[in-house]
Amino acid sequence: MQFLSVAILSIASLGIALAQQPKQAPKKVPNTAERIGEVKSATPGESQFVQDALKGGRQEVAMGQMALRQSSSSAVKEYSQRLINDHGAANKRLEEFAKEYGISAPDSGADKSIMARFTNLSGPTFDYAFAEQMVRDHEDAVAKFESAQKAVMNPEMRAFIESTLPTLREHLSQARNLH
Length: 179
What we know:
The chain contains 6 helices and no strands. By secondary structure, the protein is an all-alpha fold. Helix 2 packs antiparallel against helix 3, helix 2 packs antiparallel against helix 5 and helix 3 runs antiparallel to helix 6. It is elongated, with a radius of gyration of 30 Å.
C-alpha cells in the first residue's frame, strides 16, 4: 500500500511539473504572403528573353546617345531621343524583372564591335549607317518579342511584352523612314 501511495504521488508530481513547463508552439510553415522577400523563379526561356531584351535595349540607348553627338540630321536626333527614352524605360522594367526573378543581367548592352563601326562616322555618312543599323536591330527585336509573346507564360512578363511590342514596331517603321 505504501508503494502504491508513493507511485501515485510520483505520477502526480510529474504531471504537475509537466503542466508548469511552457508549451512550444508547433513550427509554422510560412505562407506566400510571409515570403515576400523571396526571389521568384523564371523559366530558362523567360530568363533568356530578359537577358536578350535588356542587352538589346541597352545597345539602343548607347546608339541613340552616339547619334545625338554625331548626327547632322534633326530627324535622326529626334528618333535617337525617342530611342533613349523608350528603351531607357523598358530597360528599367527589365532590370526589375532580373532582380525579382534572380536573372543575371548582362553587364553592358553596348556591342563594342557595332559601336566601333560608328565611332569615326559623322554627318550624313553616320545618319545612313545608323538608320540601316536601327532597321536591323528593330527587325531582330520585333522578332524576338513576337516569339517571346508566344512562349513566355509569366503574366507580368507577358504584359510587358504586349505593351512594348507596338513601340518596337513604331521604332522599326521610323527607322525605315529615316533614309
